[in-house]
Amino acid sequence: MKTTIFAALAALIPVGAMAHDGVGVSDAYARSANPVTGAAFMVLSNHRDVDCSLVGVASDVAERVELHTTREVDGVMKMIRIEEPIEIAPYASHALQRGGDHVMFMGVKQPLKDGDMIPLTLDFGDCGTETVEVPVDNQRMPQPAGGTGEGAMQGH
Ligand SMILES: [Cu+2]
């Protein structure tokens, strides 16, 4: 898997050699769940030798932007707002993926269409802030490891 390879490389390369010394964002994409709701997924890679935490997300594409996770509650997969920061260990990666943690857009101002670019700001607290452009890709299939991602997205 790409994530594993990247983590292995990151562990071998001294921090000074990296172009980036905070938290890197890769493989980002967003998709529409329905005309007013969408979600974004990506891999967060901590390039530092200290814990970094994703403490907040912001975008002007929607009225509300939240961090969510997916959990089984009474046998049903449900999306729940994350209250605690998402911690990323030194030189580790954390995937925001279907069926797991994700960025949720609620009250989307315009339906998310393929090829649209969504500006997204990720706040990593002491590890800095990253602003990325996330492409909308409604055709992309969930990762095999994403579990019940597709079902979990429905009706939210
Ligand atoms: Cu959600």
UniProtKB/TrEMBL annotation:
<feature type="region of interest" description="Disordered">
    <location>
        <begin position="137"/>
        <end position="156"/>
    </location>
</feature>
<protein>
    <submittedName>
        <fullName>Copper chaperone PCu(A)C</fullName>
    </submittedName>
</protein>
<feature type="compositionally biased region" description="Gly residues">
    <location>
        <begin position="146"/>
        <end position="156"/>
    </location>
</feature>
<dbReference type="InterPro" id="IPR058248">
    <property type="entry name" value="Lxx211020-like"/>
</dbReference>
<dbReference type="InterPro" id="IPR007410">
    <property type="entry name" value="LpqE-like"/>
</dbReference>
<keyword id="KW-0732">Signal</keyword>
<feature type="signal peptide">
    <location>
        <begin position="1"/>
        <end position="19"/>
    </location>
</feature>
<dbReference type="Pfam" id="PF04314">
    <property type="entry name" value="PCuAC"/>
</dbReference>
